[in-house]
Design brief:
alpha/beta; 12 helices; 15 strands; binds adenosine-5'-triphosphate; ABC_transporter-like_ATP-bd; ATP-binding cassette domain-containing protein; ATP hydrolysis activity; nucleotide-binding; ATP-binding
């Protein structure tokens, strides 16, 4: 669905006294997205997510690189790309003074659909995204969550096989976010739409994406399923409790586990890491049992995506956030 090679984008910014300097926002991105995948493009503010997305959706010309999106070449056939994708921008696109039904119909007609087809498709999507009954409301009267769902209907009305969502849940309260995630999952399940979404929320990336592509400072730094990224980097944290009299014997047993590392033994507690806690624990229980040692307590904690980002870049995702800079001008 998407193949990009060496995508780059530079911007020229005017500094003090009219001097201009260049921002290398995207520094050679390669990415592949298969049909039917739900891929999260994760990175801190300013990492280059929106710039990459705008290049892939033909809104911004790459300074270098090539891409095929939805089967069409980005540079040779931008119209073909546009016809085959949906794009839901960060701030959304609905006009405030227009009724929901008119907005959906207008969007369909912009893509060359007949009035009847646009209305029919709009009705199906509105039902699926919990907007049924709101068709005569002015869009400015919708709640944040409803508006965001309308943005998604607008992005999907022309039936694209691939949809780009830029920061879909920004600005929504926790309940509306969880609700939106359900809708996004269902869209993929019911329509087989391929979804590429950007986010800087770790929980969103974790909850929603089959696969994550992590970007930092214009470069891809990792990719994989949320679980594989977590296990690759640091492994699960384990704390077991035993009688302090046998703690060193128990620690010797735990050290035999494949990949066990970072041991810390204090009182009756043994802390360490293993690549996969769920498979290591039964093995450890059996080995301790064979030595007649009773495990009194056990806790396994999965690493978070923030641990992953920290290991990859030396910063947590939150530390890495920087205020976005104003738009000035582009250099293709
Ligand atoms: N039109 C522009 N002119 C100058 N600099 C720009 C322009 N657009 C983006 N940039 C800069 O490029 C870098 C990447 O910005 P981009 O918006 O792609 O990041 P992002 O990861 O999407 O961040 P956010 O989550 O805040 O949207 C930033 O340093 C940003 O200031």
């Amino acid at each position: 669905m998407i193949t990009a090679r060496g995508l780059e984008r530079r911007f020229r910014r005017k500094g003090r006294g009219g001097a201009s300097n260049e921002v290398h926002a995207v520094k050679g991105v390669d990415l592949d997205v298969e049909a039917g995948e739900l891929v999260g493009f994760l990175g801190p503010n300013g990492a280059g997510k929106t710039t990459t997305l705008r290049m892939l959706t033909t809104l911004l010309k790459p300074s270098a690189g090539t891409a095929t999106v939805g089967g069409h070449d980005l540079l040779a056939d931008p119209l073909g790309v546009r016809r085959n994708i949906g794009y839901v921008a960060q701030g959304g696109g609905a006009s405030p003074e227009v009724r929901v039904a008119e907005e959906i119909e207008l969007q369909g007609r912009l893509y060359g659909m007949s009035k009847a087809d646009a209305i029919a498709r709009g009705a199906v999507l509105s039902e699926q995204l919990d907007l049924a009954g709101l068709d005569q409301r002015l869009t400015k009267t919708l709640s944040g969550g409803q508006r965001r769902r309308l943005d998604i209907v607008l992005g999907l009305v022309h039936n694209p096989g691939l949809v780009f969502l830029d920061e879909p849940s920004t600005g929504l309260d926790p309940q509306s976010r969880a609700n939106l995630w359900d809708h996004i999952r269902r869209l993929r399940a019911d329509h087989g739409v391929t979804i590429f979404l950007t986010t800087h929320y770790l929980d969103e990336a974790d909850a929603l994406a089959d696969r994550l592509i992590v970007i930092d400072d214009g470069r891809i730094v990792a990719e994989g399923t949320p679980d594989s990224l977590k296990s690759r980097v640091s492994g699960d944290g384990v704390v077991i409790g035993v009688d302090p009299a046998v703690v060193s014997d128990a620690a010797d047993v735990a050290r035999q586990l494949t990949g066990a590392h970072e041991f810390d033994v204090a009182g009756g507690l043994i802390r360490f890491r293993v690549p996969r806690g769920d498979t290591a624990m039964p093995e450890l229980l059996r080995a301790l049992d064979a030595k007649g040692i009773v495990m009194e307590s056990m806790q396994v904690t999965r690493p978070t995506l923030d641990d992953v980002f920290l290991t990859l870049t030396g910063r947590t995702l939150r530390d890495a956030e920087q205020p976005s800079s104003p738009e000035v001008s582009g250099v293709a």
